[in-house]
Amino acid sequence: MYLGRNSFSEIADAPLMQYTIVQVVFWLAHFAAVYSFAGTIIVNMGENVLSRLRLLMSRRGELVVIYGINDNSVSLTKTLSEKPNTSIFFIGKAADADRDMIRSLGCSLYENDDDLIPTPKVLKKMGVKSNRKLTLYCIQDSKSQNIFFADAFMKAMEKVGCDPQKTRLVIGGYEEAIGNRFQVLAGEWNIRLIM
After folding, report:
1. How far apart are CA 27 and CA 34, in angstroms?
2. pLDDT digits (tens, 9 = 90+) for 92-116
3. What is the 3-state secondary structure (H, E, C) of 28-52?
4. DSSP assignment of 45-106
5. CB 145 within 8 Å of CB 70
6. Burial 49-87 (b: 16+ CB within 10 A, else e)
7. How far is CA 61 from the centre of its chain?
8. Which of 152, 188, 194, 181 is nearest to 167 (CA)?
9. Looking at residue 4, what DSSP letter applies?
10. CA distance linking residue 184 with residue 74, whole number of Å
11. Do strands 167-172 and 190-194 pair parallel, antiparallel, or not at all (unpaired)?
12. How far is CA 23 from the centre of its chain?
């Protein structure tokens, strides 16, 4: 009833509706329902518009990709967001408080399960180009996931044709688990391992 035609006439003859105070309460409830519904629509549309606008504006400057959402990555973002011409993307699942903090800092957030495994399509969606400066921080709490993600990200960057000299990788992991791949590539790529 609160959207569409007014059907007050169907309940106007009810004995309770003869009192003015009941009618006022009825119309206030009707107005509150319309107001809350419109507010929900506006908030959801606004969030999508802002997200798309952030993605469009992030096509220039340095790109920072942070895999793993935790207290360390959010505090790192506070420092990185002060740099001009820097676009920051988070990949991972975020709690509501972290999600709000990330968005308040002007960062983009990918929480889709498809985006948790980097492919050339995901990298292009983020604006990764062959000539763009890029920094990847793998600072998930699970060090084995950091290594898996960094390896998949590097393979996708190679397919996109990223310049190793403009790319920096910061990976948290165990020295034994990092393996030969990263140690061999450390000479070509700018890789920093955090143990």
Report:
1. 11
2. 888 888 888 888 787 878 776 655 6
3. HHHHHHHHHHHHHHHHHHHHHHHHH
4. HHHHHHHHHHHHHTTSSEEEEEE--SHHHHHHHHHHTTSTTEEEEEES---HHHHHHHHHTT
5. no
6. eeeeebeeebeeebbbbbbbbbeebbebbeebbeeeebb
7. 19
8. 188
9. S
10. 31
11. parallel
12. 46
**Residue 41: both structure tokens together:** 């629509």
14-27 per-residue burial string, b: 16 or more CB within 10 A, e: under 16:
eeeeeeeeeeeeee
Which two structure tokens, joined as six digits, stand for 79?
């420092």
**How many Å apart are CA 58 and CA 109, to the nearest integer?**
12
Residue 161: strand, helix, or coil: coil
172 Rama sector, left if φ>0, alpha if ψ -120 to 50, beta otherwise: beta
User: Could you report the per-residue pLDDT of 140-164, keeping only the tens digit for each?
Assistant: 888 778 878 888 888 888 888 887 7
Question: pTM score, two decimals?
Answer: 0.66
